[in-house]
Design brief:
Elements (H helix, E strand, L loop, with lengths): L2 H11 L4 E4 L6 H9 L5 E3 L4 H15 L3 E5 L3 H15 L4 E7 L18 H6 L4 E4 L6 H13 L6 E6 H5 L21 H13 L3 E5 L7 H11 L3 E3 L14 E2 L1 H10 L2 E5 L4 H7 L6 E6 L12 E5 L2 H11 L11 H15 L3 H14 L4 E4 L3 H9 L8 E2 L10 H11 L5 E6 H4 L6 H6 L5 E6 L4 H10 L14 H8 L2 E5 L2 H14 L3 E6 L34
Parallel strand pairs: 1-2, 1-3, 3-4, 4-6, 5-6, 7-8, 7-10, 8-9, 10-11, 11-12, 13-14, 13-15, 15-16, 16-18, 17-18
The protein binds thiamine diphosphate and magnesium ion.
Magnesium ion binds next to helix 17.
């Protein structure tokens, strides 16, 4: 057996049932090995490595399993980097297997096929663990180690580099190493939990902020919030941790208003970047952050107490401790009602967006997944998309990467074939990935691409016009006929111009479970972009994003 066959068999032995990739000469022994095990592993070859990586991202995000990909060195690897970058930002367990030239040529500069100086150095800045296989003996164990590392602790992409001579060589020991993926969570101190329970119990208005790291702890966070009577503000990646209809569930806009009034904040699996850099803090606010990644506890300039632990485990420990300090939940319902009224009034001008997003959710149902690109309605999702369960609203998080949604949605549908998956994307973003309609047809991936076709990079145009005296440039788009384009791939498509027509089309495609394109020709009547930059509500902030945050008037 050669190294390539070991890789193919090692993937199968470790439960990798789907692999996204594009072949090439450095990878030939691996693809030949995959040919032999194709009953055990599904190979999805997309049309560009950005699609490969984003599909692996989507697959991992949908299943919680490691999303695996295989790309050639140099251009193939570089094409995949955006997907790795987003995986790093969104804590997605991904395995990037990248080809490499023969070991003798690495770093030589002689100009071998696909040569990229310091490819492994580039990978290092995108992944949590990076290795090159230096001899055949370690191939199987490093593959297992890579998989194990991706799914333990703070889940993130990992990178394993496979020199072409290694994968061609015969391997004497063909035993396959199996990754040990059982949880390896940090153990927190009992006294820290005790103190936190006391602080939360004695707070007048405790506020929980739940981020992407909290989505696996829905049940315990709900119990904890109900015991305390504490509102739960959800960050973009944390949306759905509590069902949006729960009386203690708040969006960012509500959380921003509650942040002004809170005396103790418990941040669970969240960076707290926007609250600290935009919303502000002062001495009357005590902030505690819980994170599985110790480095996250000390990044921010504000005084923050930290607990190094996994959110569900910490929340459960708090639930046990709280009764010693608390008889009944605090009652802040008066504050909640007034916050909800304020939020409702402020969102009233965004009724067009609310109607469209409400329609989408009604059609795809509670379990249905909406994957969003960086189109204007994406910003409105933060407040106006009903989200009932974690990971049923998926964005590229703080990367805000144009072209993210189409391929991610396809990867998610591969991972969750029984759930409707819709991609909401602008005419700009869709053209980053239009070629992957071919992949959707070839592999029967029935995702609906809902294109908001407004003829431009409208979000950017709006900002340039408003903040830079009407000096918008480079924002108009001459588009193809999206329906004809889709149909040429064999994808059903329709043009619609009203929400009612969009609903009919979406309902039809979702119920028939077919790949489809909806070309929604419309203009967003009111920009929701301000939802990304909520105002400063406490006295101290170190700086704020792009100067777009409304400053608090000095008292
Ligand atoms: C990879 C990448 N390039 C550029 C940008 C900057 N950018 C943000 S929004 C946007 C326009 C998006 O246009 P479209 O997809 O048509 O959505 P619209 O704003 O018109 O709703 C651009 C260019 C980005 N976020 N990501
Ligand atoms: Mg547009």
């Amino acid at each position: 057996m050669n190294g390539g066959e070991i890789v193919a068999r090692g993937l199968c032995a470790n439960g990798i049932d789907t692999l996204f990739g594009i072949p090439g000469v450095q990878l030939d022994p691996i693809f030949a090995g995959l040919h032999d095990v194709q009953d055990d592993i599904r190979i999805i070859h997309a049309r560009h490595e950005q699609g490969v990586a984003l599909m692996a991202f989507g697959y991992a995000h949908a299943t919680g399993k490691v999303g695996a990909m295989l790309v050639v060195p140099g251009p193939g690897f570089l094409n995949a980097t955006t997907g790795l970058l987003i995986g790093h930002a969104c804590n997605t367990p991904m395995l990037c297997l990248a080809g490499q030239s023969e070991r003798q040529f690495i770093g030589s500069g002689v100009g071998v096929l696909h040569e990229l100086n310091n490819q492994i150095g580039i990978a290092e800045s995108l992944t949590k663990w990076t290795r090159r296989v230096e001899n055949t003996d370690e191939l199987s164990s490093l593959l297992a180690k890579a998989i194990e590392t991706a799914c333990q602790g703070r889940t993130r992409p990992v990178y394993l580099e496979l020199p072409s001579d290694i994968v061609r060589m015969d391997v004497s020991d063909t035993a396959l190493t199996i990754a040990d993926c059982k949880a390896d969570n940090p153990s927190f101190k009992e006294e820290d939990i005790d103190k936190l329970a006391r602080d939360l119990a004695s707070a007048k208005l405790p506020l929980i902020i739940a981020g992407g790291g909290a989505t696996g702890a829905s049940e315990s966070i709900q119990t904890l919030a109900e015991m305390l009577g504490a509102p739960v503000g959800m960050s973009e990646n944390g949306m759905g941790t509590l069902d949006c209809r729960h009386p203690l569930a708040f969006t960012q806009l509500g959380a921003n208003k509650l942040w002004a009034k809170a005396d103790v904040v418990l941040g669970l699996g969240t960076r707290l970047y926007a609250p600290i850099y935009n919303w502000g803090w002062d001495d009357a606010l005590y902030i505690v952050k819980v994170d599985i990644d110790e480095e996250e506890l000390n990044r921010l300039p504000a005084p923050i107490a930290g607990i190094h632990g996994e959110c569900d485990e910490v929340a459960r420990a708090l639930i046990e401790k709280l009764p010693a300090y608390l008889d009944k939940p605090g009652d802040n319902t008066g504050i909640f009602t007034s916050v909800r009224n304020e939020v409702k009034n402020e969102l009233a001008p965004l009724s067009q967006a609310g109607e469209i997003l409400g329609s989408i959710r009604n059609i795809i149902g509670k379990e249905g997944i909406l994957v969003v690109d960086v189109t204007q309605l994406n910003h409105a999702c933060l407040e106006l998309l009903p989200v009932y369960k974690p990971r049923t609203y998926v964005s590229s998080g703080y990367q805000g990467a144009l072209g993210f949604a189409p391929c991610t949605a396809m990867g998610m549908k591969v991972g969750k074939p029984d759930v409707p998956v819709v991609c909401l994307v602008g005419d700009g973003g869709f053209m980053y990935a239009a070629q992957e309609l071919a992949t959707a047809v070839q592999f029967d991936i029935p995702v609906v691409m809902l294109i908001i076709n407004d003829g431009g990079y409208k979000n950017v145009e709006g900002i340039l016009n408003n903040a830079y005296e009407g000096r918008a440039i480079a924002t108009t788009l001459t588009n193809p006929d999206f329906c004809k384009l889709a149909e040429s791939f064999g994808v059903e498509a329709v043009t619609v111009t009203s929400n009612a027509e969009m609903e009919n089309a979406l309902e039809d495609y979702v119920s028939r479970n077919v790949p489809a394109v909806i070309d929604f020709q419309m203009q967003v009547s009111e920009s929701p972009f301000w939802l990304r930059f909520l105002p400063q509500v406490r006295s101290t902030i170190p700086a704020n994003d792009f100067g777009l945050v409304k400053k608090q008037p000095k008292a």
